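Attaching the record inline, Q. Sequence:
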Amino acid sequence: MSSQETPRRPTIADVAREAGVATSTASVVFSGKAKVAPATRERVLAAAAELGYAGPDPRAASLRRGRSGIVAVVLEGHLRAAFLDPVTTAMMDGLTDGLAELSAGILLMRDEPGEGTAIADAPVDAVVLIGCSGRTRSSLEVVVGRGLPVVVIEGDAGEAIPRITLDNAAASADIAKHVRDLGHRDVALVTLPLDSDRERAAVTPERLANATVDVTVHRLAGTREVFPDAPAISASGSLIDEGVLVGRMLLADPDTRPTAVLAQSDLLAVGVIRAAEELGLRVPEDLSVAGFDGIALDGLGDLTLTTSVQPAVEKGRAAGEQVARMLRGEPGITQHLTCRFRAGSTTGPAPR
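Structure, as predicted:
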């Protein structure tokens, strides 16, 4: 560091690291919002003295009083990948609408390792978590420790945290029933990622037992109410290219090829259709394909995808409205939204 540079101000994360405690625990010591064991408190204060940490940044203190005008949104995985998904962009549009009365800016953050530390010092009024996977829960711990309002979209953060939920299981079951009513019995499934590893692989009982992405688990549970033995492969993300790759895995062998594939997103479903076309299969005459989301799609020609239309904009708007409520001092409320089944031309009678 040159002599002209200003030394970096110690943060609460530095104190936590020095004291050997979670960042949220160190935050609680300074906020006084919860009891901490005396020995832990003394260790944190000693670490703070050693590092020259005088207390929370005045900016952050003003934020907790609702004066920053910034709401953090923690997204799963890479931001670039997230915004390739029209569901995410629609949800962000809704969130902006819901926060309109606050004239708040939005700070986008990832749930990558280390982001929990970053959010410990981020100058924000409130936080919206998209999902609540294993990694995102570390961010949740820090946010709760700071005493900030937090809303979770499609994830379970415990009864004390307001959530915006979707009827993922019931909506998936509706799609499966439609396919079953068309006479299909040999059905395969393409799921969203099971966890932060985002592995493209067969969904085994062991992998499912350790899954951390609620949306994936709930949609799979709904489908397996109708097709309990249907094999499933998890994709590494909601992308058309991923659907192509998984589709090839499912369709390559004529002896084990299903008559229908149910994908947990419309983008994955489009990829499966492209994989089928590569193999000379006709949709829906040779293979029925269904998705989930109800987004606008290109590249399907005259086909209309069978899917479940989710209220993505409304989901984001509801989260924004709950943030606004809590910043006014009112309690946040959990809201449950529902999807609408839409039969398209990508599903038809099972081939004889």
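The CA atoms of residues 95 and 319 lie 6 Å apart. DSSP finds 14 helices and 13 strands in the chain.

More tomorrow.
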